[in-house]
Amino acid sequence: MTGCVKALSHDLPYLSAIFMGVVTGVGGGMIRDVVIGQVPGIFRGGKLYAIPALVSGASMVAFHVAGHDAVGMIISPVLGSGLAILSYWRGWSVATDPEWAPVNMTVAQLRCALRVAEVHGRNAARRIEPSPARRLRHAAMERAAARRKGMQDEIIRAARAGEWGPDPDPAP
Predict the structure, then answer these.
(1) pTM
(2) Are 42 and 30 in contact (CB under 8 A)?
(3) Distance, CA of 66 to CA of 4 (rounded, Å)
């Protein structure tokens, strides 16, 4: 509750106060796990870890809004701890699917998924874009490509003629 109460005392928005309560509630366990060389429990999934902190922070904000900060500082941690203990006894856990997380995708899988999304996006744009606008856009793209090609040809011609490159006699 320390982070949540500190945020509320500095008149931060309620959502920020709840977030600070979750960060302070989860942060200590993360530091402990990192120091002993384990993956932090919040990243392992399974047991309820951040949800009790979230419920506790939301409870504290509700008590603050009602004007009962002292009562909230007693009840909110008890509520969060009680939820964590109850979830442990009952075996409640957060459903995790390691195949779903985009972080677990290989580069090739991610590239394929992005290609599919790009194709779907282009098809949707083609369906809603008016034909006159498409013709104007394509004409502008062709003019830009022709200008680019002309500049590339000019650079190649200048390089072959020796007009391109460092000045052999720079001014002092």
Answers:
(1) 0.54
(2) yes
(3) 15
